[in-house]
Design brief:
The chain has 218 residues and is α/β, with parallel strands linked by helices. The chain has helices at residues 2-36, 84-89, 105-113, 135-146, 163-174, 179-190, 196-204, and strands spanning 67-70, 73-76, 94-97, 117-120, 153-156. It folds into 2 domains: 1-37; 67-217, Protein-Tyrosine Phosphatase, Chain A. It has a 5-stranded mixed beta sheet with strand order 1-2-5-3-4, with helices on both faces. Strand 3, helix 3 and strand 4 (117-120) form a beta-alpha-beta unit. InterPro entries: Siw14-like (IPR004861), Tyr_Pase_AS (IPR016130), TYR_PHOSPHATASE_DUAL_dom (IPR020422).
């Protein structure tokens, strides 16, 4: 019985070896045939780089230093033509422009086309120690900003740092922000260009004549 089992196992092994030899012979014949015909397998190719994303014409690009100040009130640096689509998405009624220079024709055309009113307050942009922030003009700006008939609106100067920062800082005082928070917000936009004269102006700005314009006093 044991001998019979061994004979069967040997027969199975010989059969498996025969199949392996036959497969090896077929592979050798295939290689000879490919070599004779001049066939060479193509070298592996590197994976193609992913396609570059197409430029989306509908991309919304906000202006420099753009941020939301409050419901219906935004701030930024000077808007360029690349920002017009973004501004249109805000459904603005007004733009509060704080520089004395004439508004560019391209920007004026954009405002006219979209029914946006321009409120210009020519506040000179000067460097320390020759900074003169007109107190009364800031009051006039805040009257326009707080009038809900003008909202949504965008406040901007050139960089959205100093003149815009002072207007927003005085608005924050009307909203009962503590001075440390007012200064923190101002410095976040002005960064290394923060001016002590701006912060001194905000600290001393008298809001008593404007309190009746805030929502809590309407």
């Amino acid at each position: 019985m044991k001998l019979e089992t061994m004979v069967k196992q040997r027969a199975v092994l010989e059969e498996e070896q025969g199949e392996e030899e036959a497969m090896e012979m077929r592979r050798l014949e295939l290689w000879k045939h490919e070599k004779r015909d001049g066939f060479h397998p193509p070298p592996p190719t590197a994976a193609a780089p992913p396609p570059m994303p197409a430029c989306d014409e509908a991309t919304l690009v906000p202006p420099l230093n753009f941020a939301m100040v409050d419901d219906g009130i935004f701030r930024s640096g000077f808007p360029a033509a690349a920002n017009f689509r973004f501004l249109k998405s805000l459904n603005l009624r007004s733009i509060v422009y704080l520089c004395p220079e004439p508004y560019p024709e391209t920007n004026t055309e954009f405002l006219a086309k979209n029914g946006i009113k321009l409120h210009q307050f020519g506040i000179e942009g000067r460097k320390e120690p020759f900074v003169n922030i007109p107190d009364e003009k800031i009051r006039e700006v805040l009257k326009v900003v707080l009038d809900e008939r003008n909202q949504p609106l965008l406040i901007h100067c050139k960089r959205g740092k100093h003149r815009t920062g002072c207007v927003v800082g005085c608005l924050r005082k009307l909203q009962n922000w503590c001075l440390s928070s007012v200064f923190d917000e101002y410095q976040r936009f002005a960064a290394a260009k923060a001016r002590s004269t701006d912060q001194r102006f905000m600290e001393l700005f008298d809001i008593s004549s404007l309190k009746h314009l805030t929502p809590s006093h309407c």
